[in-house]
Design brief:
With 417 residues, the protein is mainly alpha-helical. It has twelve helices and nine strands.
Length: 417
């Protein structure tokens, strides 16, 4: 039955659930919803029966019990006497840490490789193509194991940096020392102790709060300055220069705080059998970060290349006619337009990197999979509860990443008038 504009709808009949286009769509949705609910109900029923047969009960009370195992890498204080809930939080923070830095490094590498793949230099473009094809066609787990073997078997031991003529030398201006056990990097320290604000067990450093407050204030003021510049441009047709204000806004307060608290860099030094003074990153974290970054960067490079090629060549030719150099043309003309094509697949790659971090168990990095889905699961025997919690946590994290990137995508979309 076809509806015509202005025509009155006939009285409802059961046959309309099949033959009427409006009611048929509703019927299909209701049927699909009922079928899905029946499948879920069947799964829940089977789980309940399995619990009864095994003599188990569905409960999350194990989260308040003593964990009884150590976690080498932790961002918050943790001991084996803490609860399984705190162990899960430590694992989640480890997951977020490697995912955050992995997304940053993968984006930088992917953008550079994607742009260089379109270079007019034959050698550069072919080298970038080889890199992309190699990482696209080899599973991530193999890359993780390859980098682990390199770090374990190729890198020197810490004592190789000892002596006047050491067998190994530090890199990056003698600031980083890769070893077969860990990677020593410099750290930041304060000469003047700012104190802490009591908050639970650990407290919050006042200097950290000060720097965070300055950053938030700078971002707010920057937004206000941009709004003022836009209003002036709409009124006069000329946009005032605000770049120097933004530079001062993001430098002077931070320099002042760094001077006040005596912020300085502490270089790692070999004393005894280990490096001290800096931060020793466990090689499991470094290996996982490198593998995730390089692997995901290959996919991001393809998205960048597709976005750039989607921009009309006339845009670049017009920029060249105005006297813009290739680098400025790429950064000011091509890439801003290509973002509309790049961002949707970029969101998927960020989600893939976050979920692929669960492969950390292959190198012994205690992330959410290694704590809640590994040791806690094996110790408590609460397989169903642990799996449900892991699924929910990964779902929430993925939705937050997707939602944040979609907000950014709306900002770069074309605004129709």
């Amino acid at each position: 039955m076809v509806d015509y504009p202005g025509a009155e709808r006939p009285p409802f009949r059961l046959s309309m659930l099949v033959y009427d286009q409006h009611y048929r769509a509703m019927t299909i949705q209701v049927v699909v919803f009922v079928l899905v609910m029946l499948v879920i109900a069947g799964l829940i029923r089977n789980a309940v029966i399995a619990f009864e047969i095994a003599g188990k009960t569905f409960s999350f009370d194990f989260l308040s019990r003593r964990a009884g195992y150590d976690i080498p890498q932790h961002l918050i204080p943790y001991t084996s006497d803490d609860t399984h809930l705190r162990a899960a939080v430590v694992g989640l923070l480890n997951t977020l840490l490697v995912s955050f830095f992995g997304c940053i490094f993968a984006t930088v590498i992917g953008v550079v490789v994607g742009v260089l793949r379109l270079s007019s230099n034959w050698l550069v473009s072919r080298l970038m193509t080889i890199y992309v094809e190699i990482f696209l066609n080899i599973p991530l787990l193999l890359w993780i194991l390859i980098f682990l073997a390199i770090f374990t078997d190729v890198l020197p031991a810490p004592n190789a940096y000892r002596g006047e003529n050491p067998a190994a030398s530090m890199i990056l201006f003698d600031m980083v020392a890769p070893t077969n056990r860990y990677t020593a990097i410099p750290s930041l320290a304060l000469s003047n102790d700012p104190g802490v604000i009591a908050f639970g067990r650990e407290g919050i450093n006042i200097a950290v709060l000060a720097f965070a407050g300055v950053l938030v204030a700078a971002l707010v003021i920057r937004h206000l300055i941009a709004g003022w510049a836009s209003r002036v441009q709409d009124r006069t047709g000329s946009r005032p220069a605000t770049w120097w204000l933004q530079i001062l806004l993001f430098t002077l307060p931070f320099v002042a705080l760094a001077w006040h608290y005596g912020l300085h860099v502490v270089r790692p030094e070999l004393k005894g059998f280990n490096f001290v003074g800096g931060t020793n990153l466990d090689n499991s974290f470094v290996v996982l970060l490198i593998a995730l970054s390089l692997y995901t960067a290959a996919f991001i490079a393809e998205a960048v290349r597709a976005g750039i090629t989607a921009v009309s060549k006339g845009q670049s030719e017009a920029a060249f006619a105005l006297g813009l150099r290739p680098g400025r043309t790429m950064s000011l003309v091509v890439l801003p337009q290509a973002l509309r094509v790049i961002i949707p697949p970029l969101i998927s790659q960020y989600l893939n990197l976050t979920k692929n971090s669960s492969l950390a168990i292959a190198v012994g990095y205690m992330d959410l999979r290694g704590t809640l889905g590994g040791t806690t699961l094996n110790q408590t025997g609460r397989e169903m509860e642990c799996m449900i919690l892991m699924m929910l946590i990964y779902l929430v994290v993925s939705l937050l990443i997707s939602g944040g990137m979609n907000l950014f995508y709306k900002r770069v979309q074309l605004k129709e008038r």
